[in-house]
């Protein structure tokens, strides 16, 4: 029995399979998910060939020290912002041997939300060494802490697969 639902396990299994076949590694930078993305990936046998490292940076200090998030970014935009997610993913990518990294920061609830940053708001970013960078702002709503966290894991894995698929397209296919 797994800790994760079947859809997340299936997505993780595809990532492990495809990254293994391509000889690539992944790293994660997680705040609101507290390591669940890494957990989902390492639930799959053979993941040690693919998962380079995971950063759990729940505090702003950890984000700055481990990932190089700028204090000015945190002060201006807050921990739960596109800017912070982008700096987190950049730090995870360049502080690892990964070809692709993914980062998440959000408000899982039940408390901690505000009018401008409600419970269920999550910013995700994924980046490849080739320079591709994607960001998603998700508004899951106040659906429950576990549900927000698991939905975030699913979205993060989907973003990783999207970047990997983009790497495999030729320039002609990508522009088609």
From TrEMBL:
Record SUPFAM superfamilies: CinA-like (SSF142433)
Coiled-coil annotated spans: none
Domain CinA C-terminal: 11-163
A Pfam family reported for this protein in Swiss-Prot or TrEMBL: CinA
NCBIfam families on file: PncC_domain (TIGR00199)
The name this protein goes by in its record: CinA family protein
Organism: Rhizobium redzepovicii
Lineage: Bacteria, Pseudomonadati, Pseudomonadota, Alphaproteobacteria, Hyphomicrobiales
């Amino acid at each position: 029995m797994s800790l994760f639902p079947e859809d997340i396990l299936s997505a993780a299994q595809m990532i492990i399979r495809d990254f293994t076949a391509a000889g690539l590694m992944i790293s994660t930078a997680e705040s609101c998910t507290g390591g669940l993305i890494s957990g989902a990936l390492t639930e799959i046998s053979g993941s040690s060939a693919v998962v380079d490292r995971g950063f759990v940076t729940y505090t702003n200090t950890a984000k700055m020290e481990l990932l190089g998030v700028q204090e000015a970014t945190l002060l201006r935009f807050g921990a739960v912002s596109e800017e912070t997610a982008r700096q987190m993913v950049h730090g995870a990518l360049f502080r690892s041997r990964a070809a692709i990294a993914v980062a998440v920061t959000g408000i899982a609830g039940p408390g901690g939300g505000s009018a401008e940053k409600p419970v269920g708001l999550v910013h995700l970013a994924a980046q490849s060494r080739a320079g591709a960078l994607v960001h998603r702002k998700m508004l899951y709503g106040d659906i429950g802490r576990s549900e927000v966290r698991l939905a975030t894991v699913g979205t993060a894995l989907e973003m990783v697969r999207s970047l990997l698929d983009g790497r495999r397209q030729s320039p002609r296919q990508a522009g088609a």
